[in-house]
Design goal:
The protein is an alpha/beta fold. 25% of the residues lie in helices and 22% in strands. The strands form two sheets. It has a six-stranded parallel sheet with strand order 2-5-1-6-7-8. A two-stranded antiparallel sheet has the order 3-4. Strand 3 and strand 4 form a beta hairpin. It is globular.
Length: 174
């Protein structure tokens, strides 16, 4: 994937705690002055506006795109006339890249780009690594021999933030 901004994903099976981890991690990265864009893959139809609100009513009336904006935020909702899996590279082109330093991605685990795999032993799922060569580290809650791959404590968001900051610095150097 070719973009001027570094992209780092968090890949795991459902229930591993990707969103919970990111919710704790993003403020720590912001404290270091890193501006974040976030792309999240959803597996189902979802609504971002509420039934009864003007934007919802206009979109349901047939608007292919609905852009709602205020002085504090904006949201663009686009209806897919033919349902299809979203492509990460296309979604990234919709971001305002000049306003961010790092693109974090939740999901898209089968797309080849740098990722930290999250793993919880209690879920009984297999590791995505070593079948995914784009995985640059594993954050887990149990001892793990991952060869030369860094193993991080999934519950230590400070250590994960430090790892990401170092990785980001390496990306800027290349």
């Amino acid at each position: 994937m070719n973009t001027a901004k570094p992209i780092l994903g968090f890949a795991a099976f459902s229930g591993t705690g990707k969103t919970t981890l990111l919710e704790k991690l993003i403020p720590q990265l912001l404290e270091q002055g890193i501006r974040i864009a976030m792309v999240k893959h959803a597996h189902h139809a979802f609504e971002v506006d509420k039934p009864g609100k003007d934007s919802y009513r206009l979109r349901k009336a047939g608007a292919q795109q609905m852009l709602i904006a205020s002085d504090q935020r904006m949201a663009l909702m686009t209806e897919n006339s033919t349902p299809q899996e979203p492509r990460l590279d296309e979604l990234i082109t919709r971001l305002e890249l000049e306003t961010v330093d790092l693109i974090l991605v939740e999901g898209f685990k089968r797309v080849p780009f740098a990722k930290i795999e999250l793993h919880r032993e209690a879920l009984g799922k297999t590791l995505l690594h070593p079948d995914d060569p784009a995985i640059i580290a594993i954050a887990c809650d149990h001892p793990l021999d991952a060869g030369t791959l860094p193993v991080l404590d999934i519950n230590d968001t400070r250590a994960i933030a430090v790892f990401i900051i170092r990785w980001l610095q390496q990306q800027e150097e290349t």
